[in-house]
Every structure is written in C-alpha cells, then in structure tokens.
Amino acid sequence: MSLRYALLALLDAEPMTGYSIAKHFDQSAAYVWHAPHSQIYPELRRLEGEGLVEGAAEARGDRGSKTTYFLTEAGRAELRRWVAEPTQFPPVRDAAYLKATYLEYGDYANARSQFRAHIRHHEEMARRWDAHAADLANHETALLKLRFKEWPEEMHAAVVGYKVHAYRGLAQRARDEVAWARGGLELVERLEATRYGQASPRP
Amino acid sequence: MSLRYALLALLDAEPMTGYSIAKHFDQSAAYVWHAPHSQIYPELRRLEGEGLVEGAAEARGDRGSKTTYFLTEAGRAELRRWVAEPTQFPPVRDAAYLKATYLEYGDYANARSQFRAHIRHHEEMARRWDAHAADLANHETALLKLRFKEWPEEMHAAVVGYKVHAYRGLAQRARDEVAWARGGLELVERLEATRYGQASPRP
DNA sequence: GACTGCATGTAACGAGTTACATGATTGG
DNA sequence: CCAATCATGTAACTCGTTACATGCAGTC
What we know:
2 copies of one chain form a homodimer. Chain A is mainly alpha-helical.
C-alpha cells in the first residue's frame, strides 16, 4: 500500500510521466521504494480515478501518447494523511537470515561464499545510499531543488534534514549488514579451526 | 520462494502438523520467517506432491483428521541445494523509511510520534531476538535439542553457532533501528530549536 | 538503417493478507 | 457445558515479478 504514496510524494516535487517515475525507482539509490513500470502505470490510472493525481496527455506521433501526471490538492491532502497515520511494521521475512540460520546444511566454503556475497551486496548499497545522502546534504539533487520551490524557506532545513537522516540510516543499516557478515566469516573461521573433520554430512 | 525452505528446515528438526508450524511462525521471535496457516497448509500439500515431505494422516473424531508431515530424503537434498545456491537480495521497499523521508508533510509532534513508535517496535523486537539467541546459546530450546540428535557431535557447534549468529544479528539490527530513530528525535529537536515558526504548512 | 532511449501497455503467475468457516479435544 | 486450544481448510483480494509486446524520437 506504500507504492501510491511513493508516487504522490515524487509527483509533488515534479510532474512526471510513468516512464520517468520508473527510472527514479530503478536507480534504486535515489529511492526508498522499488517498483517496475508494470505496477506504476496502472497505479497512476487508479490514482487519477480517485482524483489524487491528474494526467495531462500529449500526442506522440500518430498513435503514441505520453501523459504527464501531477498532484492535485486532494493528492497532497492524502499525502499529509498518510504521514500522520501510524506506520505498520511488516512481519519479518528475510531470506538471507533464514539461510544463515541453516548453513550447517552446506560446507564451510559455502558458508563463506554466502557471507561474502552478503558483504559485496551491502557494501554496494552503502556506497549508493551514502552518495545520495551526500548529494542531498549538499543540495545537489535536481528533485530537492524543485522541492525547495514548493516550501517556504524556514521549512527547507526540515525538507532536506528528514531525507538526509533517512538515507544515512539506510547507509548505516547496510554497513551493519556488512559487519554482521564479517562476523559470520569469523564464526566460520572458528568453527573450522576446532574441527574434528570437515563439515561432516548428516549420518 | 523461501516459505518452502522454512518449512523443510523446521520439519527436519521434528515432524509436525501444519498447525504447530503456524504457531512457530507466529511467535515471531522463534523464527526468521512469518506465514499464516492459510499459506502453510497448501504449501505442505504442494511439497508432498513433489515428494519433499510426506504426511502421515491420523483420524481425529468422525470427520476430523490431523496430518503430521516429515521430511523425506529428497526434501533434505532440496534443503542442501537451497543452502548452496546464491541468495537473491530483494529490492528495497521500506514503508517506515519512505515515510521518514517525507515527514515535512506533518508537524514536529507527528515526526516525534513516528520515531517513538519506531523505537517501541524495534526495542520489542530486539528483546525477543536477544532472548531467543540466549536460549539457543544455552541449548535451551526444544527444537535445538532435537536437531542435535540428527547431527554428529562435531557438528553441534556449527548447528548452534549459525543460529546464534543469525538471531544476534537480528537483535543488533533492531537496536540499530532504535538508534536511528533516536537520531530522528534529535533531528526534530534541532529543527524545532531553529524554527522561525511551527512547521509551516505549504503556501 | 540500426541502435538507444523514451513511452506505454497487457497477461500470467506467485506470494501474502484477511476474512470466513468448520469441527475435535482437553480441562476446568 | 463452556472456553481455550488443536486442527484444517477456502475464497477473495492485493501486491509484486516476469515476460511479452508495441511504437516514437533522436543520432551515429
């Protein structure tokens, strides 16, 4: 149910086509939410049906067309309602930790390679989130500049502050994942050092 | 696609009915994966169809029945295959961070209450995971004792070690979330201190 | 003329949520 | 006998993934 709010919040910065929204979501660093275009186009039409956004269609060639969506006053109100609403915390469902719990079903080499993949992935994530947080802090992102125009000056510190805090948090979270996986590598080391034999298969 | 492996791994410790699997998943601390019974029963039947588990049906009254499922050799092989397979990292989709990014749409009181709810939730999570990690480390969980019977003694350190590492990691992750939300409260404090006026609404 | 990027869609499927529904067993 | 717990299911729905599909615009 968060996709719609991600869309509304994006469109409040700048009216956009479904295509460019999809691009923002794809270059994952720039956004806390991911969605493929096959989800975005229908949702935009739904939002339009509810009067939360409005689409301005423009012809493109003979049959083609592109629609730039912008937020309506009702859409802005819906955004405020959502921000004020308590957030639901989804139940935990983490494939990497689930597997980490059962690494005894593989050998030490596999455990190592799982933790190394974890490190690689989250180092890359941390790099991206950090870069984005820095861009925001330096007021270097195009979207942020557009947002500033929509807000009175005394609110600019909050507009950027909340975003920087969120993206730094994501970067930190990724670094914590890296630290955890490094701990996993050390664990494998210890287990292997005290071995009676190589990770024996089940009897 | 991870639900099936959570089921297989549970059943390797102890043959169970769908009902007791659901209970394990519900008392979320004890498990890294959550699923309602409406998902579990059909999946067990699917797994049985694929020969990965086998169900022993037992009569319960005239019409009732209960089925205890246990892992087959093929199921154990599938579990090993999954553990050896590279893990996919899902794209980021975090409702709490999405909202944290847009707290300027609400007032400072709301921002505080959002961060406080975040703290409450993750403190509770940390408490549960820590408790479970401690129980595992002390070999005090019933399931772990059953698992030990299935593994040669030189593997026991690994069986418990991986699990403790995973649950401690989850506890640490929850504490990191708490720290992030506390940082959020400080941010609100700073923003409010430098205010020209209360969080002004949009022009 | 071919390739890349812009732009939009559908359809099938799998995963997860919520609600509804039924009945058995155990213990007070 | 009543409540709690054990036990199993279905149905409708939403959300998300993957693949297929089409066409325009600019440029090398």
